[in-house]
Please model this.
Amino acid sequence: MQAISTTAHAAGQTIASNTQKLIALEFLTFTLGSEEYGIDIQKVQELRGYDTVTRIANTPDFVKGVVNLRGVIVPIVDMRIKFNLGLPSYDQFTVVIILNVANRLMGMVVDSVSDVIALTAEQVKPAPEMGSAPNTGYLIGLGMFDQRMLILVDIDKLMSSSEIGLIEEMAAA
Model:
């Protein structure tokens, strides 16, 4: 009787672990330069083309300004500038991802948006230790999909980091 119970328990654990493998997180993928990034699709409110922003004095360079989105003032952050990936160029592929982070709307300018990808836990590898590199605590890890490697970003941590935390204050004003 004990052997049957143990076997059933082991089978239950195998089913449970296989079920966890089937659970996938969906990421909106976007590009900055030659790199591809992913953010939790549940944080995305909408996608918009890049349009003129109203510049606010004394804000960091990566804060492009604000836009009026159906009566809500939304701060816009240029991720290419934030990540020091060179000067941005705005064209027909440039996208503003409107995010809902901590019940606040924020815009994130990216070079282009690719698609939505579902990744299982096995497809996500931990972010490597960067030693003395600047704060990379906003990285979830690296997603492996087909022959692509995605840099997965925890948008909550990134947007509430000490530098970008200024945006929350600005949005509240």
